[in-house]
Design a protein that fits this description.
The complex is a heterodimer. By secondary structure, chain A is an all-alpha fold. Chain A is built from twelve helices and two strands. In chain A, a hairpin with a 5-residue loop joins strand 1 and strand 2. Helices cover 36% and strands 24% of the residues of chain B. In chain B, helix 3 crosses helix 4, helix 3 runs parallel beside helix 6 and helix 4 packs across helix 6.
Chain lengths: 332, 255
């Protein structure tokens, strides 16, 4: 508010002095009409952008409220115990248990989701960091001219394509090597890893590029070799950015439904090995949401799975903010 | 050829992008325990020359250095020369105070660690000594583990000097080290320069501050458009310069 009054006043002050001269000369006040229009434009702009913000906020809020309400109704109105839901290992909604409620233990899917997310990140980190170092420090020309555009191209590929490729190549390959069906957490993680690799690599490249050039110079001037500089200076200073990249990659992997669903096997059983069919929160959701009528207990339970996804993505975002805040506080 | 020369350049010539001659035929000699000021208008090649002396110009792909740079009588401007050995002995302080985003301690310990010193007690000793030499110890001795960015601009620059001194260099190159600092910090850095000179370190400093050059240097070299016009003791340069252009520059009659 204060800022805008200040800005408004400044041109006015000069306008009054020159305007006074002008008035004496021909008796009109030409400044007035433009001033009014400017004010109108400003007010109009404020209203318009304000409406946009309002719409976005209302959409977001109603989304969160809806998922939360629906997700919680499993526990509040259907009477399923949240602990049983989160720790139950059996997912069989069509079989009623002793108390007449569906058997809905979500732990297999929760474990499945975390397993594919963590495993895919473990695969992605070395490749992302390694290739980013090459593209920024070792061969920046190649990085700028070729690698970066190639990554941007890969980022745009729809996830279903990754799933399809995984289904055609990875699943048979795993089947041949380890036996079994080939579907499972390993196939899911590999597909996710390939899928998030371009995004994470791009972000890591950004992080490395944002390390100020004087750091590299000073390190060289202190007799640091190239690898000492990369290891002790560049990677150290870029750590918050790299962590952010990884967390964003994890968020994307955690929320991905289609590509995973195509290769994980979708068996809602507690995963016992990486090559047994398993399931994730997202895959169970997409597989079953269309089949269940609204307001049945089963339908409510699926909303509860969605609520877990929502909460997790919130946690990922909070982690990213925390990393950003912490690296600022520490050094400025 | 002077007898106790530590660093000597013979016909050093620098080109950027093959075409642009940034420096021509620079022949200068630097001795231990001596402060040399490089002065001259902006763009005349002072920084370029300084970056030749520790081969920092090798980091710029389109920069070509010709001529001989003798350190202890050995030409270091050769393909085979180990850059890291040179820079360990010929330290450099930059214009903008740019410590690493690490603690004060780790900033100073960086170079010794890179050069293989792992012993904590030995590192502690080097850190204290270097900070004392840069007249910063009393101000930071209780906050060694704080980020270097908690320091003021003047303190950061002294930290950068301490970081360089931690390598125990024989030569310290400084490129306008005080241009971003207030008079008090500038004074502190000039004191440090005097102190390390007394230890026998050879200091080569680029400065736009003529009074500073007069105050702290023993020799002065005046550069103009890529040539070294005049090089002599500071006294002669300031009181009785042989070249009219030097006189013009020093009296401010010069762009
Ligand atoms: N990295 C570079 N690439 C190309 N040309 C350069 C580079 N660095 C310097 N030059 C050119 O070399 C010439 C000398 O520059 P230099 O930075 O050495 O001048 P200087 O005397 O230090 O100036 P100042 O007092 O402004 O710092 C200038 O014409 C400059 O444009
Ligand atoms: Mg310069």
């Amino acid at each position: 508010m204060n800022d805008s009054t200040l800005v408004n006043n400044m041109p006015n002050r000069s306008a009054t002095s020159s305007g006074t001269l002008h008035n004496r000369a021909n008796g009109t006040r030409p400044q007035d009409s433009t001033r009014l229009t400017k004010g109108q434009i400003e007010r109009g702009g404020k209203t318009l952008t304000g409406i946009c913000v309002g719409i976005v906020l209302i959409t977001l809020a109603s989304l969160i409220v809806m998922v939360t309400a629906k997700g919680l109704s499993t526990f509040i109105s259907d009477g399923i115990s949240p602990i049983a839901f989160l720790t139950g290992q059996v997912w069989d909604p069509h079989t009623l248990d002793a108390s007449g409620l569906p058997t809905v233990g979500a732990l297999p899917m929760i474990v499945g989701s975390f397993a594919v997310t963590l495993l895919s990140c473990a695969i992605v980190i070395p490749f992302a960091v390694g290739s980013a170092i090459y593209a920024v420090e070792v061969n920046p020309r190649f990085g700028r001219r070729f690698f970066r555009p190639a990554l941007e191209l890969l980022v745009g590929i729809p996830s279903v394509v990754f799933g399809l490729v995984g289904l055609t190549i990875l699943v048979p390959l795993i089947r041949n090597i380890s036996g079994g069906t080939g579907y499972g957490i390993l196939a899911g993680s590999l597909v996710l890893a390939v899928m998030v690799l371009p995004t994470v690599t791009s972000l890591v490249i950004d992080a490395l590029e944002s390390v100020p050039a004087p750091y590299r110079q000073s390190s060289a001037a202190l007799g640091g070799t190239r690898w000492q500089t990369i290891w002790h200076i560049v990677l150290r200073s870029a750590t918050p950015g790299i962590l952010t990249a990884v967390v964003l990659g994890m968020a994307r992997a955690f929320g991905e439904a289609l590509a995973v669903q195509m290769v994980i096997g979708n068996a809602p059983a507690m995963p016992t090995s990486l090559t047994q069919p398993a399931s994730t929160l997202t895959s169970i959701l997409t597989m079953n949401m269309g089949n269940e009528a609204m307001n049945t207990v089963y339908n409510d339970v699926l909303w509860s799975l969605a609520l877990i996804l929502l909460v997790m993505s919130l946690i990922f975002i909070l982690i990213v903010h925390f990393i950003g805040r912490k690296s600022e506080v520490k050094h400025d | 050829m002077s007898e106790n020369a530590l660093l000597e350049t013979h016909d050093v010539r620098v080109r950027y992008h093959d075409t642009h001659d940034a420096l021509r035929n620079i022949n200068l000699t630097f001795c231990p325990g001596e402060v040399t000021a490089l002065i001259g208008p902006s763009g005349c090649g002072k920084s370029t020359f300084l970056r030749c002396l520790n081969l920092m110009n090798r980091e710029i792909p389109h920069c070509h250095i010709d001529g001989e740079i003798d350190y202890h009588g050995q030409n270091i401007n050769t393909k085979k020369q180990n850059l890291y050995d040179v820079r360990r002995n010929i330290g450099m302080v930059f214009q903008s105070p740019n410590p690493f985003r690490k603690s004060i301690y780790d900033n100073i310990a960086f170079a010794p660690r890179q050069h293989g010193i792992k012993d904590r007690a030995r590192l502690d000793e080097i850190v204290e000594q270097s900070l004392r030499r840069a007249a910063l110890w009393d101000e930071v001795k209780d906050v060694l583990n704080k980020s270097a960015y908690a320091l003021s601009g003047g303190q950061r620059q002294r930290l950068c000097i301490a970081r360089t001194l931690a390598m125990n260099p024989e030569v310290v190159l400084m490129d306008e080290p005080c241009s971003a600092l207030d008079p008090i910090s500038t004074h502190a850095i000039e004191e440090t320069i005097g102190a390390i000179k007394a230890e026998g370190i050879c200091v080569i400093i680029v400065t736009h501050n003529i009074e500073q050059a007069a105050r702290i240097s023993d020799k002065t070299a005046f550069f103009l458009l890529g040539d070294c016009i005049e090089w002599n003791t500071t006294e002669v340069i300031f009181n009785n310069p042989h070249d009219q252009r030097t006189k013009d520059y020093l009296t401010g009659r010069f762009g």
